[in-house]
Amino acid sequence: MKPIRAKASAKSPKQAADAANAAAASFAALTAKLDYLPADDVENIRRAYRFADEAHLGQMRGNGEPYITHPISVASLCAEWRLDAQALMAALMHDTLEDCGVSKPEIIEKFGSPVAELVDGLTKLDKLEFNTREENQAESFRKMLLAMARDVRVILIKLADRSHNMRTMDDMPRAKWPRIARETLDIYAPIAHRLGLNQTYRELQDLSFRHLHPWRYATLTRAVQKARSRRRDLIQKVQRDIEASFENATLPVTISGREKTLFSIYKKMDSKHLSFAEVTDIYGFRLIVPSITDCYTALGVLHQLYKPVPGKFKDHIAIPKINGYQSLHTTVVGPSGVNVEFQMRTEPMHVVAESGIAAHWLYKSHGEQQALEGVDEPNSAAADAERLGTQWLQSLLDIHNENRDASDFWEHVKIDLFPDAVYVFTPKSEIMAMPRGATIVDFAYAVHTDVGDHTVGAKVNGEQVPLRTELKNGDVIEVVTAEFSKPNPAWLGFVRTARARSKIRHHLKTLSLHESVDLGEKLLLQALRSEGIDALPPEDEASSSLWGKILRFSGNQTRAEMLADIGLGKRVASIVAKRLVTLLAAAGQKPDPLLMSKERFTAHEQISQGAIVLDGRDGGTVQYASCCQPIPGDAITGYLGRGEGLHVHTADCSVAQKLMQKDKERFIAVEWSDEPLRAFATTVIVTVQSGKGVLAKVASAMASAEADIKSVDLGRDSEVGAPTADLRFVIDVRDTAHLDAVLRTLSRTARVNKARRISG
Fold it and tell me: Facing residues of 414 across strands?
């Protein structure tokens, strides 16, 4: 909430004194929470408070309180998470850079560089406006995530700041409520959940709900209060039964009630179209026991007391959630047939469940004492929470480094902000959590980028499966890799995780650039030979001035960028070549007249030695036109499309002939390699006598001729009962000789009248 600069006459001396007392009282409440810090740290926090108090002097919040009460409240929330002194100092000063004219060097001088960096990071976040326009929101969101990835304390302080602003939003103008509440619900609450800060997550959701839908919130509040009073007897009976059972089992337990939040009730009613009376799991119980073994013992005690509901047991201890959450969940049929949910966990699990990544600081101050007592479970639980949170934050930096487009980044991260996990196993029985809907390829990239890039197949539970297979809980996954394999663009159609999508796109962009540079170099060399120069100038110090001049002429930053533009058709190779020849002539290198005449003559005859040789491994920069489907052996020509790379047509293609009339200078000489490295697609029409089994005969004939069928159209538009039918096949063949052999084999096949190749 922005501060309001008060006028000198705005408050009476008594009001000013009351305000000062309120601020002092709230700082006293903060210092009472700092017993986990050494005296030197507390003194540093006190200095930061005095600095912030002086900086905000005369500023008021919307409710009339001194503005300093807000930073103190934010620091108090951070103190509840046991954050370190640097974080608390930054929390106290988080608005000083933006609103009070304080400079970053001043904070560095007084409190050190780490504190100044935290304050600076928070200031940048405060300036973000999450507008409704998608691209603005995406860019702002990226800045925030990158700030928190560099130091997780930044987002913890920001979440504390947002929590206090939401708690005091009644003092803001009502017109601001919807925007701030929606922003909190869409962005800050999911981040809190992803980092395991469940208590903050639930509070932010409920406060957002209250300010987005005040009437619905009030109605649900009244309904829950009535239900609470109606079910008080039932809840008390369940609690008495549990206490008696655990006393008989001599198992110490702390029992607390757990009530579903208003927002989660509303969401369930809305998504499943239920009335309030149909929501049965509003109330439940949480059991805190001494050890992990006691969690399972407690489960047995409960199941002896009440019958469990089938399919409602979840073991999040053996398999924690992605954000580090651990508990046993079970739903039982309680008194009067009412379903009651129970959660069983240890005290360390409870702290991690409520505080997530902040548990790292919660436990840090108590680590030594627990070690002396022989208790190491809390530290491991906190370490797991920190590892999971930090792992996700690091993945944000990886995605950012590979993908500079803000909208793509936003799409990637939205997937990971709402994890609904499935748990699968590697062949070595290691558990991995994946988002629901994740596929084999997602799993491969989660293991390692090299595994994902070279994936060719996979086995799930010992059976071969397609790469697009969705993972299910308990699957054992074995990925098969091959050195020659590369990411397939088609994978982008089914991968689920941000990591996999980002890695695939990064690889394809890099590959496409490399291919474009290679093609551009061939085209430029071909154009240079036509001008009488037999080679490109070398990339050495002697030629650096020459390359600098040609790059200024083309408007490119680097040689590779210029060649890529030529390969993609954004620049015409002959124009660049003529300029290069002029520059070479000025430097003393004259064109070779013999080479020039030879190249120009042979280019006219379409057998130029400078022609682009095609062997089928040209990737995305060379496309074989679908209108004529050229195959090795066909006479071909190349058209350099604007920004689309090289399109290869047959010499007699009608589309190519029309393009030549409009854009003749964009046609270049191309020729087939003597040994193409792959098969090429072409279309054949097979006219057959209608009847049972004819398709099988044709397919068998093609297989015997070693033609691979890519697709088949059975001619559904043909007349019903017609004696003949045309079957259209798209097949892969090596060259025209292979195609002729396939057509001969088909013509000799029983019930085939005719087989012929068609264009497109």
Answer: none
